[in-house]
Amino acid sequence: MKGSVDEGLCMGHGMCAALAPGVYEVSELGTNEMGDFEVPPGAEAAARRGARACPERAIVLDENENVSVA
Ligand code: SF4
């Protein structure tokens, strides 16, 4: 699963990394500067929790990535 963080929206609340430390990293200022990233295999649920917790809706996850077209 891929995701991306809009650094222009991120206000440094740090909720993403608090809820999903294996997925999200924040800087010393508390801002998430990951940009486009790959969710580690098996961490999809944690990634969703972290994204939902973001008050700025700065994290977008690609839920359709593994859907194959017949
Ligand atoms: S929860 Fe959202 S606003 Fe807070 S650090 Fe993470 S991406 Fe940024």
TrEMBL record:
The keyword Transport applies. Keywords: 3Fe-4S, Electron transport, Iron, Iron-sulfur, Metal-binding, Transport. Signal peptide: none annotated. The keyword Transport applies. Its cofactor is [3Fe-4S] cluster. It comes from Streptomyces hokutonensis. Ferredoxins are iron-sulfur proteins that transfer electrons in a wide variety of metabolic reactions. InterPro entries: 3Fe4S_ferredoxin (IPR001080), Fe-S_cluster_ET (IPR051269). This is Ferredoxin.
